[in-house]
Amino acid sequence: MKEFLVELTTTVPEGTDPAEVERVRAAEAVRAAELARAGHLVRLWRPVGELRSIGLWRATDEAELYEKALGTLPLWPWMTSTVTSLQSHPNDPAGVTDAA
Asked: Domain map of the chain by residue range?
């Protein structure tokens, strides 16, 4: 599986009924949990004071990321995204073993 850094910004269309926003946000939480269990959504952060999310996602390729994960989010029609494909860095502490 490949890893992707994904930035998502949600902009609710002006005039959207607040009850509809609440319904879609609740559905989003359910879908995010499903994607986490499936191994697609690994971590999710929100920068302090901002209304965007930054997440670590996994998929076999970018097409699968959109088809089976991001595109299935209930808020997706209201989102803009930036996807960055990641690769391991030789100095990544997670990949270094202690030889001592």
From this structure: 2-87
Per-residue three-class SS string for 1-43: CEEEEEEEEECCCCCCCHHHHHHHHHHHHHHHHHHHHCCCEEE
Question: How far is 95 from 2, CA to CA, in rounded Å?
Answer: 15
In CATH, 2-87 is 3.30.70.1060: yes
Prediction pTM value: 0.89
> Greatest CA span in the chain, whole angstroms?
62
Convert the pLDDT of each residue in 11-65 to its tens digit: 999 999 999 999 999 999 999 999 999 999 999 999 999 989 999 999 999 999 9
Please give the DSSP secondary-structure letter assigned to residue 91.
T
Q: Which residues pair with 41 in a beta bridge?
A: 57
